Structures are given as C-alpha cells and as structure tokens.
Amino acid sequence: MKKRFLASLLVIPALCAALAIGAPQIKNIKIAVSNPSDRPCNVADIVIPIAHLRKVAPDFTPGAMIVTVSGAGTLEQDTSVLQTEELPSQVDDLDGDGKGDELAFQVDLAPHQTRIVTVSYGNQERIWRLRGDYQQRTAALFSRKIEGLGWESERVAFRVYFDSRNAIDLYGKRRPTLQLGVFASPDYTYHDESPEGRDIYKVGDAIGIGSVAGLVDGKVIKVAEVKERKWRIISSGPVRTIVELEYDGWNVAGRMIDLRSRITQWAGERGFTHTIFAKSADDFEFVTGLPAKAGIEPLTWSKDSPAEWLATWGEQVVAPGPTATEAVPGQQLGLAIVTLAPHAVFAGDSKNHLIKFKLSEGSQSWYTISAWDQEGSNRRVGHGNQKEDGQHQSLILPSDAIRTREQFLSAVQEQADRMAKPAGVQILSSTATGEPAPPDTLVPHKTKTVEQAVGLLRQAIDRTAVQWQPILQATPQLITSNSGQGFFTEANNVTGEWQKQNGYYWTGSFWTGELWQLYSATHEEKYSWWAEVWGSKMSGQESQQNHDAGFLYYYSSAMGSDLTGDEKLRASAIRAAGRLEQLFNPKTQLIASWAEHGDDTIVDTMMNLQLLWWASDKTGDKRWSDIGRDHAIRTAQWFVRSDGSVIQSLHYNPGDNRQSFALRGGAKEAEFPHTNTAAPGEWAFAHTHQGFGADTTWSRGLGWALYGFSVAYSETHDPLFLATAQRIADYAIKNLPTDFVPWYDFDDEGVHFRNRDSSAGAIIAGGLFRLSLIITDSARAKSYREAGERIVQSLIDGYLTPVGDADQTPPGVLRHGCSMRPNDAMLIYGQYFLLEDLLWLEQHKRQENPVIPVRP
In the predicted model, is pLDDT for residue 849 greater than 60? Predict the structure, then answer.
C-alpha cells in the first residue's frame, strides 16, 4: 500500500485534570553565601537558623535534607548549572527539645565570591537515598579518664577539667584523626609519646587556654566555687561539635552568677569558639587568656580591626610523661585568642596573659587557636603501588603543620579577619520549589503541532544525511563499533553539530531507524537509499556484538527488511538474533549484556528482545521467542521493584562462582572483587553507571523497561508482563516533573545532577502509547495515552528547536538528552524515539493510512 506523508495534524490534546501526576518529592531553598573580604575564605563556617528557613518553607524537614553548592553567583546562573557539589551538613538541636534549631555546613569562598547554596528537602526515603555518608570530623565525650569534657576536630583536641580548676587543656595530634576515644580508653596513657597524638601542654595553676574566669580588684577568680556544675554534649557530627558547661551559683567574691559556657569546634579547624552567657552580669568584668610561660612574651594586635588578638609562640610543648614539667627543645606551639568584644583590654599576672571584657546583652564570644609544629607529621598517605590484592601502598608523611612564628601569626590574623568580616548569608527563595527545567525551555514559545514537529525533525535528518554521507563514504577503513568515521551519537545543544566519534557505538542503528521511519512515512527513495548506505556499514558484524546486537540490527536490518523485502537485510537481522541466543545463559535465564558467560545484564536488554520476537515471527522458530519470554520473566523478577521503579544493572553468579566481577557500561570498565555467596544462576548485587545510585531509578532505564514489557505482553500475552508494564508506567507518571520531561534519574530530581533527559521522555512516551493499546481498562488506557501525549507535547514545544523567536539553533534539535550525567546534548536515540512517537500519533489518529509497521 502506498504511504502518504502527514497532512493535517493537530496539537496534542491537553491532559484531563484527573490524570494522577505526582508533585516533586524534593523541594529547594536557594541561599546566597558571600565572602565580603579580599582574602579567600577556605571553608567558611555557615549557620542558618531553621526558623529562617521555615519562613519561606513552612514544611521544611530538617531530618531529611541535603545541602549542595554550585559555582554560580546568581540565581540566573544557577539555573544553568548541571552538577552541584554536596556539602556535609548537620542539624543541631540546641535546646534539647528533639527539634532542629540550626543548620550548619562549610563552604569554600574565593575573595569577594558569592556562591549559590541549595538546601533540598522532602521525602525522607528519597533524601537519604541521595545523601552522602559524611565522615565524622568532630567529636566530643565526657570521661573521668580525661578528667572532664573533651571536644576535637581531626587537627586538635581540647578538654576542660570538670572540677575547681575549670581549665582548658590541649592534646596535640600527629595524625589527623579523632582521638579522644583512645585517650579515654582503659589503660591508655595519653601523656606518653605516640605516633598518633598526646597531651602536649601543662596548664598548671593558670586559668587555661581560652577558659573563662572573673577579675575582681585585679585578682583572677576561677570558676571554682559553684553550687552545681553540669555538662552536656549538644552535637557531635561531621561539621561541628557543640558542648556546654553550666555553673549554677558561681561565687565570685561574694557575688552569685549563673554562668553557661558553650564551646563550638568546626571540622578541620585548629580552634574553637567559646561563648559565655550570664544574666544580670553585664557590669561584671570577665577574663579569658593564655597561660604565661617563662621566656615567651605575649603578642597582641588590635590596630584597624574590630578583632583583637592575644598570642604566644615558642617552646611550650611539655615533655612526655604524667609528671613532666619541662618543655621539649625545638618543638614550637602557638596559642592565640581572637575576640570581637568591644573595649577588651590586655592584662596579665604571673600565671596568665589576660583579656578583660564585659558582656554585651548577656553574652560574649572569643576564638581560641592552637598550632603545634608536629601536627600532621604522621599523616599517612598512600603513594606509588596500586591497591592490588594483598599489596600495601608505600606511605609518605606530608605535613601541613604551621611551623614558624610568621605562619602562625598569619593564621591568627586570617581568623581575626574572618571574624571581623564573616561570610554573608541571604535566603533568596520566596518559597520552596522543585528545580526548574532548563532555562531555554522556559522562554516564551508557541505551541507546535505534531505535523510541524515532524517537519522539523525531517529538516534535521536531511541536513545530517547531506553533511555526513561524504564523511561516511570517505572512510577507507572498515567501520566497526569502535573504529571508523561516519556515525554519531551526541550533538551540541546550541549548534546542533554532531560530534565525531570512532565507530558506530551501540547507537548506530537509530540513525538508520530514523531514515527507515521517514521512508515509510514519505516513500521517498532517498531515505531508503541513505538507510541502506549506513546500514551496510554494520552488516556482517552481527556475531561480534554484545547484547546491543538487538538495537543495532532491529532498527536497521529488521526494519529495512520489513519495508523493502531485502533478503540480505533479513539475513543480517536473523544472524543478530542468533548472537543474542549465544549470549543467553540458561542458568540465569538472562541474556548476558557484554559477552558469553558474562556476569551482568542491564535493563536496556529488554528492548533488544524486539529482535527475538521479530526473528521468531519471520522464521517460525519458537526458540527465539522462548528466550525472549525467559529473559523478560527474569527481568520482571529481578529488575523491577514493587513500586515500579527499575534497577539498571544486576550482577549474578553465571555458574562458576566467580569472586571478581566486571563493572561495564560506564565511561571506564573496572574489575570489582566481591565475596560472592550467590548460588549458580542467582543474582549477587545491583549496580548503576548512569543513574545516581544502585538503589535509584535511572529514567532511560525505566523507559527501556516500560517499552520492553509493553512489547513483551503484545508478543506473548503473558499477564506478568502487562502487570509489570503497568507498575512501571504508574511509577513514571507519578514521578514526572511538572513539564513531564524526566530528570536523568527519577530520585535525584536535580539535587546532584540537574540533567533532564529528553531521550528518556521520548522512550517513556513510546512505552505509554504501546501500553495504552493493550490494556483493557479504558480509563487507564486513556490516562496512559494522555500522559504520553503530554510528554511529547512538552518535548516538541520546549525542547525541540526552534524554541522561541530568538532561537538560532538549526531546526529539529531535541535538546537536553543525557547520555551519562552530567552530559547534556542532542542524542541520536532521542531524535529517533521522538520521531517514532510522532508518527505513532499520526498512525493512531488515522488508522486507514498506517505510517510504519509497528510491533505491536
């Protein structure tokens, strides 16, 4: 029958309001964090009250959130960012009521730099699937062994004597680890020398390092005589540790003061912030300070800065041993206190170098710094030998310690500058929202009809064929999957230019598939000729392929055979089906994706079953359809979760109990040692190389599964396949974004990678269309078709060029496909499946003129 080209096609109807579309499960609050100084602020400490976040997001859930940052400096720039950096964060309950009060994180800022931070929150299961495992970099504990309360970062540890001394002491660290637990362990002597760290300071009768005391008539009065002394650990996490000490009824020369000390130490820092609170004591003179050591003169600074500091540097590291009092010759230790207290006064006595100050509205803070020149001297870093089984790396000991007086004073001044000009925080969002679609899809644009969209794709196809045919024919060598010029997969979103590649990859047949589709629609001989030219380059290599033999020869040889009756194409397609048969493992009931007797299968292979159904139908040989059925059954059992979400890759015991597995399919292949206890034919572990994680849902993989199971049911009428396809479809519809074009991963929702995948949208739409034909429930069939139509309409309006009057990209470019996050490009398979969707819509509007034989 002669096919006619598309005539008068209409805009796809709008969806009915009853269609169950899920709202974003993750919302975002945008925050600008700025460095006001002309110095870099490496690891700025940021605190945001939860109450401030709830002003713009009343439903904010502190227990389920992620903090990320981009390099963008404005909201507009941030919308074009494809990949963010996750920042370790923690939520702290300051008052002990079980509810979060502050969000804390750290971020690097260049001089005068502003960076956009995103706080993402929402569905707890989804958030914690996306959230990283943050290294514990601070800690706190109370122990009699260390005589009180201790706190630490990986650089240094402190403790306060929980008795009348109330002095803060110091542990130095040769290795950047958390060590208080070791110091507090039974029979461990923390005074002795160790390659890890030890007690390196002697406080003596002084008030301690950054401790608090009172000053009455020129006499220092320690926080010694109190009615009740209490302690608590507020938080101990990857970002900061907060501890508190309460002194009820402190007797200061007859005056009773209720005093509270809060101490905060941040990850990676050499010091801590000490904040004191007291009621009705603003007229009282408090002091903090550093112990006075013989021969070490104090250094002070207060010029032209609101931050003042007091410092000491020299040989003040006490020798090992619990009774030692002498200093270690040659070892240097720097101590400093930085304060913003107004009108602070430097003073001292025989035991202390002091800073005098008064409270401001009931509180005051200062920062205490310690720097030992042996810090990091046991920072063990592997170098040289590879991490092979049973082989250790050689170790080097790079130290980033502060070694000189000048370096120490520079670090103290840097801290003073940070305190004088702290990082600015501004909440930019007026309300919490999901991450938006790509900016170029949101410009004002007109609605396209299906006919117009097909015309645009046809322009792109003609343009591509004319440009690339000479390149193909000029290639003297054989073109294989990884050598030779003339095939393409990805193109620039802006220029529409295809990138050159070596070989036809797994994607080569989607180009020939486009040509065969247009030949079927128009019956113009140029399209069949081009399809045969490109397809001939792959012919004869069927037995050398992996599971992608299904892709490569279904959309070229099988489709061409159906349209032309060419026996050479038919033979090519059947040889490819034979290759899939060779890859089938009866023990696993799966086609191995990469090689015979392989240990993994990816969900994409569901699409390659089309070739088996075709071959069985054309030859009458049932063995191929049996393989397809077995593979689909096992895929339904192993790859599709109960909620309809989909796993990308499963590794299994192929029958030889192997203990090392090949992780294939990503940018790099790697051997993965795995203690395999799976029985022969059983699965060992899940894996993803294109989704966010093994427990998330890669959207294109879901599309392959939906499309594949819809076709599998049409070919076999097995109710398992229909139920599986429906479950996948329901998950997809529930989790689509507001513009119906999926994220590259349904779970990520733009938190880590902000890629949409237009190709996944086109494939999912194709699966929904096929499902709408085979389901008997008319209401559900209608909803599936309408969801597919809405996806296609969104793709052709916002993603298919031109979008808007100012769009200079050549016509017919389907933007924002994601091959491997964070790649963002036009993809040849996105082009193919969008064309297939559009022609399907035409065919199923005018049944009297089918456009192309469709299976189903």
Answer: no
Residue whose C-alpha is closest to residue 301's, from 337, 262, 276: 337
SS (H, E, C) 338-355: EECCCCCEEEECCCEEEE
- 3-class SS of residue 568: helix
Q: Measure the CA–CA gap between 795 and 425, rounded to whole angstroms.
A: 37
What pLDDT sits at residue 1?
32
Q: Which amino acid is at 478?
A: L
Can you give the pTM of this predicted structure? Answer: 0.92
Surface-to-core class of residue 64, CB atoms within 10 Å of its CB (0-12 exposed, 13-18 middle, 19+ buried)? middle
Lowest mean pLDDT of 309-323, 692-706, 719-733, 842-856, name the range: 842-856
* H or E segment to which residue 573 belongs: helix 567-583
Report, as an integer, the average pLDDT of 471-494. 93
Q: Is 8's pLDDT higher than 70? A: no
pLDDT at 379: 80
514: left (phi over 0), alpha (psi -120 to 50) or beta: alpha
Check: CB of residue 713 under 8 Å from CB of residue 774: yes
Torsion sign, CA atoms 691, 696, 698, 701: positive
Contacts of 762 (CB under 8 A, 6+ apart): 703, 791, 792, 795, 814, 830, 833, 834, 836, 837
Both tokens assigned to 354:
């002091």
Identify the H or E element spanning 222: strand 219-222
Tokens of 528: 């069949």
Q: Please, what is the average pLDDT of the chain?
A: 93
Contacts with 546 (C-beta within 8 Å, 6 or more apart), sequence order: 506, 583, 593, 594, 595
Nearest-10 crossing angle of helices 778-794, 719-735:
50
Cα–Cα dist 437/439, whole Å: 6
Residue type, 152: E
> Which of left, alpha, beta for 384 (phi over 0: left; psi -120 to 50: alpha)?
left
Residues 6+ away with beta carbon under 8 Å from 586:
none
Q: What is the DSSP string of 438-475?
A: PGGGSS--PPPPHHHHHHHHHHHHHHHHHHHHHHHHT-
Mean pLDDT over 649-665 rounds to 91
User: What is the C-alpha separation between 815 and 295, in angstroms, rounded?
Assistant: 71
Q: What is the mean pLDDT of residues 699-718?
A: 98
Which pLDDT band, with edges at 50, 70 and 90, does 397 fall under?
A: low
Confidence at 343, pLDDT banded by 50, 70, 90: confident
d(CA 151, CA 262): 12
- Residues 620-625: contacts with CB under 8 Å, at least 24 apart: 623/581, 624/577, 624/580, 624/581, 625/715, 625/716
The side-by-side arrangement of strands in the sheet containing 197-199 is: 138-143, 148-153, 156-161, 168-173, 197-199
Q: Is the N-terminal amide bond of 298 cis, ω within 30° of 0?
A: no
CA angle 658, 659, 663 (to 5 degrees): 95
**pLDDT for residue 382 is more than 70:** no
The answer to whether the beta carbons of residues 771 and 725 sit under 8 Å apart is yes
Under the banding of pLDDT at 50, 70 and 90, the label for residue 475 is: confident
CA distance to 391, 657, 681, 693, per residue, from 676 (Å): 22, 7, 12, 21
Task: Produce one character per residue of 294-333: b if its CB has 16 or more CB atoms within 10 Å, e if not.
Answer: eebebbebeeebebbbbbbbbebbbbeeeeeeebbeebbb
- Tokens 């117009």 locate to 452
pLDDT confidence of residue 15: 42
What's residue 535's pLDDT?
96
Q: Please state the separation of Cα 477 from the chain's center in Å.
A: 42
- Could you give phi then psi for residue 663, rounded to 5 degrees? -90, 100
**Mean pLDDT throughout 609-637?**
97
Question: Which strand ranges, in their side-by-side order, compose the sheet holding 219-222?
Answer: 219-222, 213-216, 286-291, 352-357, 345-348
User: Which residue do the tokens 């040769």 mark?
Assistant: 174
